[in-house]
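Students often ask why we bother encoding 3D structure as a string. The short answer is that it lets us treat folding as translation between two languages. Here is a chain of 138 residues written in the first language.
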Amino acid sequence: MKEIEEILERNKIRVTASRLLVYRYLYERRSVVALSEIENAFGRADRSTLYRTIKTFEENRIVHQIDDGTGVLKYALCEPGCNCNIKSDLHLHFHCNECNETKCLTDHKIPPIEVPDGFVAENANLVIKGVCDKCNLN
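And here it is in the second language, the structure alphabet:
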């Protein structure tokens, strides 16, 4: 937990029990999770506290939001050193049509894309859909 405390403090986030637990949950899952999954994992926790925790993490670039096309926004921990910059930190995501799990493919970066004059890019999302390595074995 000390390491998580240091990460939160380094990002100027006040350390609370909820924030420590949510961060640890995301770290241990090592996959993309929906807010409802976090709520289910912490059944007795206040939903608004969990939502505010995720939003605080997102605003401070500890997690990034993923729209994998399922209609449910999901979240994943950012890599160390990530600042969620559209020109340098975006990566692919893979959504499995079999198990419905989404994974960050952080080794596969989205190259910078120049938009026409007058346009301002604020976000980019590239999701590959198919069958993951676990489901492909079946």
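Translate back mentally: The CA atoms of residues 97 and 130 lie 6 Å apart. Keep this in mind for the problem set.
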